[in-house]
Amino acid sequence: MSTSAERTELWVGAVVLAVALGFLVWSTSGGSGLTQGLGKTYELRAAFPNVDGIESGTDVRVAGVKVGRVSSVRLDPETYLAEAHLRIPESIVLPTDSAALIQSNGLLGGAYIELQPGGAPENLAPGDEIEDVQGAVSLISLMMKFVDSQASDKKNDP
């Protein structure tokens, strides 16, 4: 094999390793660099009874459009609710009666937080809590309720 072919293989290998290292760094940072690209942001809180599928770096959307990210999720030891901290751009101002819902990307997909703006004249300030929340719905529990209701219907039929 010639030396120029060996050099080419060496450079291609180095580029592949550099790209792999870049993806590794990005994935371990939780994608936090993407939120910084949104410009100035502020943080809101939302306490959910169940945050299944939500973690740091999860998308925050308004009308299906990604506008921010979840910066952290922690358990409140007093209320036993999962408190999610949401980072959204300063350009998006939400009324105080806005809602935060955990939505699924599909049957096998992940989850995201959907913000539904309300109509109140006052707006949420940085650090405020979104009071109207809906936690994650377990697909398995819904299926079990359906199966149970079908079984009880068959028992009641003569």
Automatic annotation (TrEMBL):
Tree of life domain: Bacteria
Domain Mce/MlaD: residue ranges: 41-118
Biological processes annotated in GO: phospholipid transport
Pfam families per the UniProt record, alphabetical: MlaD (PF02470)
InterPro entries (alphabetical): ABC_MlaD, Mce/MlaD, MlaD_Phospholipid_Transporter
Name used for this protein in its record: Phospholipid/cholesterol/gamma-HCH transport system substrate-binding protein
Protein source organism: Paracoccus sulfuroxidans
